[in-house]
Amino acid sequence: MQELTGYKGQALGLIKSAGASIGDKLKLAREGEIVEGLLMPRVAGGDDIHIVLKLATGYNVGVKISEKTRIQVLGTGVKPTLSRPPMPNATKGLPRVTIFSTGGTIASRVDYRTGAVEAALSAEDLYSFVPELASEANVTAKVLYSLFSENFTTKHWKEIATTVSDEIRSGVSGVVIAQGTDTLGYCAAALSFALQSAPVPIVFVAAQRSSDRPSSDAATNLIGAVSVAAKAPFGGVVAVMHRWLSDDTLSVHKGTKVRKCHTSRRDAFKSIGATPLARFHVESRKLEMLERDLPARGSSEVVCKPNFDDRVGLVKFYPDMDPGIIDWHVTNGYHGLILEGTGLGHVSARCYPSIERAVKDGIFVGMTSQCLWGRVDMNVYSTGIDLQKIGVHPLEDMLPETALVKLMWVLGQTEDSHEVAEMMRKNLAGEISPRRLEISGNDEDH
Amino acid sequence: MQELTGYKGQALGLIKSAGASIGDKLKLAREGEIVEGLLMPRVAGGDDIHIVLKLATGYNVGVKISEKTRIQVLGTGVKPTLSRPPMPNATKGLPRVTIFSTGGTIASRVDYRTGAVEAALSAEDLYSFVPELASEANVTAKVLYSLFSENFTTKHWKEIATTVSDEIRSGVSGVVIAQGTDTLGYCAAALSFALQSAPVPIVFVAAQRSSDRPSSDAATNLIGAVSVAAKAPFGGVVAVMHRWLSDDTLSVHKGTKVRKCHTSRRDAFKSIGATPLARFHVESRKLEMLERDLPARGSSEVVCKPNFDDRVGLVKFYPDMDPGIIDWHVTNGYHGLILEGTGLGHVSARCYPSIERAVKDGIFVGMTSQCLWGRVDMNVYSTGIDLQKIGVHPLEDMLPETALVKLMWVLGQTEDSHEVAEMMRKNLAGEISPRRLEISGNDEDH
Question: For labelling, which of A100, B61, B130, B391 has a CA lying 20 to 30 Å from the CA of B310?
């Protein structure tokens, strides 16, 4: 009997009670829920309440057990190969895709939760982990970082942009960037501005659940991301993540419109104020385009402008906010400030003198809305008009996070204040949606 | 012919071309859209591209005109009374409701856009504006402020709480607070904590569109709010606003869970991480309860604890954020700080020393998520565990804005740090949703 690697406690007891060994086909039943699959080993350091099964689909799932779980050996299946499978030979005619790993849940194999992390981003590991990738593309995997995404800085964005640009110049059909979910939206915006005319898809992907969890989205998202990178008819920066709770469809979001909107759900990423560009159907591997007005694949040369200015702040306004927070940015030599105001783009009148000082000091001050959805409009109320007079720039329907990243990027390109203002108010990478025609009595959607 | 009060330019020309006068029944047609109603006067200072019609429903709408608009006089209707209608006599048996006006779009009659604002919150004005109110309740209207809601401070919250508490003690069946939409969510949270055991409904209401606009939600929302205040079977703080784009249903949101999520749509207010408490059906005036586990009307005495501490800050984290922003709060004598972190509740490692200094200085530091939906969980990743070790308190699924207001309120009640922590982590007014049982493989919703 093959050793029950990695199992302990309750899980080990249950497996032993059935006389099962690694590779056997098992049926686990608990309160009406039934899961069948081949018993897989676990890595060290895991808990004792999950049993990992390889399903018929090829995915490994961690099935949570309890005292109510019943176990049954359905058969002694072919023992799985526990050594790495041989690398698939590069398949002629398949597109070349490079996956850059930067850290986060998706880049880890099992038991991220317990700290027993294994970066799984060698190409061999990937093919072992998600063998389906071999039919989508000839994949090369490179580890850039192993970082929690909250620790990313403008320096990392610059390095990623430069690296991805070089990779595209080497002739790949697409690039995938695997990252932690937390600041993925910011980084996708950063690359959207730094690599504006990318001739191939640059696909951000992540996972909300590590692969030892029954509901992991790591494999599905990775398959979708590689497929989009390899075959999508457009160039540019997107993020590919679960569309909803089911595993059947992924959404392809524009890099400047995507936002993490749930702490734990697999469909946490949403396109804000925009429809997703496309849907990826997991079973059929088909890409259903929703937005047709995108730059065609191969229609441009990649241009890399990777500089960002880190002296840009984001201030979320709240009632009774002390304007001293704005002054702090002036005192500390900031070059730009994004306000996340209320409603159509407001802050309290008490903040006006501080904002005026900032503007006089040459700081670009842009207004976005903490509503997240909808467009700022600083011509409706006198408060908006006053703020514009002071020199605050309304930033249309830009997400506050995207506006921050854009201003960091713009100030990395020029110090000329007129140019900065012009670039901030112009749609450069899909960050500003066109205004719809106002139809009397039905202007809810603008 | 009655004077065409308030009309000028294009609108005046169109009306004159038809030989119409105030009170006539008109048909305005433009590209297939047809509106019929009685021609109403406008107040001075309006634009020249809207014609105001009183519809059969009794509402005034401003119809946007263009060169394509065709006008037709259908009949010389009964001339509308332009003087105020007589106050309805208090109807015996109808509940008493007090409406407090604090400013904002809903409190103004016409042409808020142009600055020609008329506060419409005398009871006479209200009945003239929304005559349907007379069948819902005996309404008294009081003007508290005439303020843009972004200028509200803790001082205003305190005054509103005290005033509302006194009004409830005087025996009214319910209270309505008409306010600007921008910081309505913050104020609703403030009253939720300050007046925790209210025996009657305290209903926040607002309008996204002023009443001169064809799509105004002012009248509908006000009818719903007064009806809920008068008749709802529960006590406590709620907000009543459009459920979706149609006028047929309003949502009743819990005061600690409601958030403005669109800059301009009428259904901008959403319950975040919670279902609305009820729906109000406008036509039938029926309240459909969705949440049954609410304190029953009359089951308690109002207790007013109206103090708030304004030395509490909200900091939204972003990549590359300078921890000096956190230090600024320490230096400036803050007592509390809410972090709006990423994902499950993270900030960059670079911020840890500043947070540690804040905690050592006796500042309460609470963690919420900029995802808005979902619950923080600082036990999943080492970064969350590290932050807890430093002394950061995870605040479950509290909205960042609600957490800010709650901390302001808690620090207004006690300076004892253990009590503060205990109160912050306890559900006091529905701000923390109960955790659902984690079901293996389907824990998307917690």
Answer: B391
Same structural domain, B183 and B284? yes
CA distance A404 to A327: 18
CA distance B118 to chain A (A): 15
CATH number at residue A382: 3.40.50.40
Same domain, B185 and B332: no
In the block, tokens 């514009």 appear at: A388
- Residues with pLDDT less than 70, chain B: 1-2, 43-46, 57-60, 77-87, 108-120, 211-214, 436-446
Q: DSSP class of residue B225?
A: H
CB–CB of A342 and B260 under 8 A? yes
B181 labelled catalytic: yes
Residues A358 and A221 in one domain: no
Give A272 to chain B, closest Cα distance, Å.
Answer: 11
Q: Which residues pair with B271 in a beta bridge?
A: B258
Say which range, A187-191, A208-212, B117-121, has the weakest mean pLDDT.
B117-121
Check CB contact of A211 with chain B, cutoff 8 Å: no
Evaluate whether residue B318 is within a structural domain.
yes
**Pick from B319, B346, B404: CB nearest A318:** B404
B-chain residue closest to A400, CA distance: B318
The two structure tokens encoding residue B435? 């955790």
Residue A173 within any structural domain of the chain: yes
Taking the C-alpha atoms of residue A289 and residue A296, their distance in angstroms, rounded to an integer, is: 13
What does the pLDDT look like over B271-325, one tens digit per residue?
999 999 999 999 999 999 999 889 999 999 999 999 999 999 999 999 999 999 9
Give backbone dihedrals phi and psi of B363, rounded to 5 degrees, phi first. -85, 130
Mark whether A177 and A34 lie in a shared domain.
Answer: no
Per the structure, the complete domain to which residue A150 belongs is given by 96-289
How many residues does this entry show for chain B? 446
CB–CB contact A344 B313 (8 Å): no
Pairing of strands A50-54, A33-39: antiparallel
Q: What is the CATH number of the domain that holds B68?
A: 2.30.30.520
**What's the structural domain count of chain B?**
3
Facing A347 at nearest CB: one of B150, B321, B374: B150
Whether A322 and B332 lie within 8 Å, measured CB to CB: yes
Measured between beta carbons, the chain B residues lying within 8 angstroms of A64 are: 440-441
In-domain check, residue A41: yes
* Nearest Cβ partner for A260 among B33, B345, B371: B371
Does residue B123 share a domain with residue B270?
yes
- Asked whether the beta carbons of A38 and A79 are under 8 A apart, the reply is no
Q: Does A265 sit within 8 Å of B440, measured CB to CB?
A: no
The CATH number of the domain holding residue A158 is: 3.40.50.1170
Helix, strand, coil proportions of chain A in percent (round to 5)? 30, 25, 50
Q: How far apart are CA A219 and CA A1, in angstroms?
A: 29
Burial class, B210, CB count within 10 angstroms (exposed 0-12 / middle 13-18 / buried 19+): buried
Six-digit token string for B4: 């065409």
Nearest-CA distance B227 → chain A (Å): 25
A71 and A100 inside one domain = no
ipTM for this model? 0.82
Question: What residues in B contact A274, CB-CB < 8 Å?
Answer: none
Do A262 and A124 lie in a common domain? yes
Task: Compute the count of residue pairs across chains A and B with CB atoms less than 8 Å apart.
Answer: 217
Q: What angle do CA B339, B340, B342 make, to 5 degrees?
A: 120
d(CA A78, CA A59): 16
**Is A265 inside any structural domain?**
yes
Classify B134 in phi/psi space as left (phi over 0), alpha (psi -120 to 50) or beta: alpha
Nearest-neighbour CA in chain A from B236: distance (Å):
22
Specify whether B81 is catalytic.
no
Of A346, A408, A438, the CB nearest to B150: A346
Residue A107 contacts residue A144 (beta carbons within 8 Å): no
